[in-house]
Input
Amino acid sequence: MPTISVQNLTQFCEAILQGAGVPRHKAEVTTACLVASNLRGVDSHGIQLLPYYVDQLLANEMDAQADGAVISESGSCLHFDGQNALGQWVAETCCEHAVRIARENGMALVVAKESNHFGAAAWWAQKMRAAGQIGIVMCNASPIVPPWQGREGRLGTNPICMSVPGPWLLDMATTTVAAGKIFKAFLNGQPEVPAGWAFDSAGVPTTDTQSAYKGMLMPLGGYKGSGLAMMVEILCAVLSGGAMSTEVGAIRFRGKKVRVSQMFLAIDVARFMPVDEFTARVEHLVALMKSTATAPGYGEVMVAGDPEWRTEAERRKNGIPIADGNWEQLVKAGERVQVAAPALQ
Amino acid sequence: MPTISVQNLTQFCEAILQGAGVPRHKAEVTTACLVASNLRGVDSHGIQLLPYYVDQLLANEMDAQADGAVISESGSCLHFDGQNALGQWVAETCCEHAVRIARENGMALVVAKESNHFGAAAWWAQKMRAAGQIGIVMCNASPIVPPWQGREGRLGTNPICMSVPGPWLLDMATTTVAAGKIFKAFLNGQPEVPAGWAFDSAGVPTTDTQSAYKGMLMPLGGYKGSGLAMMVEILCAVLSGGAMSTEVGAIRFRGKKVRVSQMFLAIDVARFMPVDEFTARVEHLVALMKSTATAPGYGEVMVAGDPEWRTEAERRKNGIPIADGNWEQLVKAGERVQVAAPALQ
Output
């Protein structure tokens, strides 16, 4: 697969966003989030998203000039109105509030409504981690997942993410896989997806990529995945007063704003023990996992974050591989705003 | 199956605990928690647990006199030492702190170490709900679950529970099923458990109840279930400074204290909107789920909490059914402390 350097990809994406009317500082924040996800190997949440953002911007369905505004701040709680701003800009602002409030009060819960897609939750949870805090991030999403026993989309992939000081980082959709994995298979012409990923549009399990793309994602493990998705929907959309379930739009479809809600929870570790001690305890716990004898057929026990850190080390060295379908979309997005594409290697 | 009234079961369990040296007020709190779980149909976390508590008490491995103590309180954070007290008494105390702090600061995070089994998390999360708050409760547990790709127990069933004002209540182990479901099958002589519940002791999936009982539980959906269990382990045991992973004991085995950690997170809904408005929004979200067309083979979409509320209505009316194996254990526990059993109906 052809590759591109972090620097070239970053410049290209920033230029595209600026070409679509996004102020420079917001283009930088947004691009940093997307490219970081490609670096981590989470291509579903990387620059694959940018062409959709451009669609939204050029259709005037996302407001590049809006900054969002604090509705209220009270104790550890902050309520934010995203005002249809870029999701990454809302998240950047909310993370700053969360870190500040957790420093003051030991904890923070920042909940934003009327936001847009903010890329991978892991990028934001790690902002809290960088401040010596535990960061928990959740968001609701387009209603492409049926509740357990249903056959119409009502919930999003509604991810749960937690980052901590120490070698562990969880960022998981509450479906078997993230929607972006099916989009990626579709964009890149793969005929089949694994069993357990999706239903067709009639609510019947399918492995056909076309049917899965037009169908729905499966909740993780059945009814428990639905329960977790509802937990996220309540903590984000119900609590924010924002759009929920079928009221939420989608970055891939025009005519409706996205209107997602996002939640940022920060815990100041130092209220319980020094951060160094906490970090050592996480390291000890991770070591206990890795010392586990492996099950038949496996050579190693990994913990959340391991695959992505390994991929990041490799991609920083060798560049970011870009699938043909994704690159074609990005180049087209560039053409729409008169930005020429750099060469791939 | 024979049944027993709530009143008779409550009196019997309180008497057994008092016979084992538990002060009256703690016996009442503990029994209320267990019987509530039977009422909800979650028999795995009901009076089935009491004989093990009695074993712990009579072996001097749990301290019926200890109350636990606050280590520190700072802003929204409270750090608690359970001092090996009854888990239900630790939880009762921590919930009171969580509700008080969330009223003062909008949020509370109470983390307790050196606790014991506290029954079903749902009972405690509902204490916050009763105060107009969102209650999130987690705890670590005996290391009977291998991390994904491992074949030795390193994590507990580590439940995630959330209760909110409104008709929805999540309380789920991060394994496919709670350990109590396998114990229940074992105690009651059922030869098989469903596929996907457990590994045998070599790390190979099994449906044989004996092998499952001696083996290990499966993480929910594979690596994501392991990730969620680690999230719980970190928020409870790492943050509390308590026992983690293989340092944790088990109520079914003597010679080692249980030493679990528990986390109680409370959010004061009123900081975001009036509780009535929040409740109406939860009701609306639940109605959106229930209006979903059903998948082939299903007649209804239910949400978390539905099956238990229905069972509770039925059992309050007709009494609590008690399986032979569970009753035999409870009667034996009574005999150990000279408390006679009431008659079943």
